[in-house]
Specification:
By secondary structure, the chain is of the alpha+beta class. Helices cover 33% and strands 19% of the residues. The protein has 5 helices and 5 strands; from the N terminus they run H-H-E-E-H-E-H-E-E-H. The chain has a 5-stranded mixed beta sheet with strand order 2-1-3-4-5. The protein is globular. The termini are far apart. 31% of the residues are buried. The mean pLDDT is 93. The protein binds zinc ion.
Length: 154
């Protein structure tokens, strides 16, 4: 089995951590729509991989972000962190849901750096992954980032 196939299999096994469709919150559709609109603003001339994200604060406000690439590549910032940092910079604290939208058949999860940042500010929030064709999966942050490092260690 090639390394690529092994990774795909591991990824598919992780799907079992997804939250089932019961208790689907209609507000998730609003969050997905916001992330989808933010994706339109992605600055991704190098990868052409456009991502949108939206975080819902416990106050009810929604903050969005898109990926912002840079010619250095390394300075690129993901949509999730843009959304969270926008919210934090406007004084918001406490979030209960995050949506991530990309144009991929296998839904795009937050990268490792974003998981760490999301845990810092969102704790065990729900993460809703969606594509442009209406496919949706939901996860808890604790499934995406088991045994996280956080302030409880400091
Ligand atoms: Zn990321």
């Amino acid at each position: 089995m090639s390394e690529r196939d092994e990774r795909r299999e591991a990824r598919n096994n992780a799907r079992s951590d997804a939250i089932d469709d019961a208790h689907y919150d209609a507000h998730y559709d609003t969050l997905i729509a916001a992330a989808r609109m933010a994706r339109e603003h992605a600055h991704a001339p190098y990868s052409n991989f456009r991502v949108g994200a939206a975080v819902r604060a416990k106050s009810g406000r929604i903050f969005t972000g898109c990926n912002v690439e840079n010619a250095t590549y390394g300075l690129t910032l993901c949509a999730e962190r843009v959304a969270i940092f926008k919210a934090i910079s406007e004084g918001e604290r406490g979030f209960d849901a995050v949506a991530v939208v990309a144009d991929t058949d296998a839904l795009t999860p937050p990268c490792g750096s974003c998981r760490q940042i999301l845990w810092e500010f969102c704790g065990d929030a729900e993460v809703i992954l969606a594509n442009l064709n209406g496919k949706v999966e939901r996860y808890r942050m604790s499934a995406l980032l088991p045994k996280p490092f956080d302030q409880s260690f400091l």
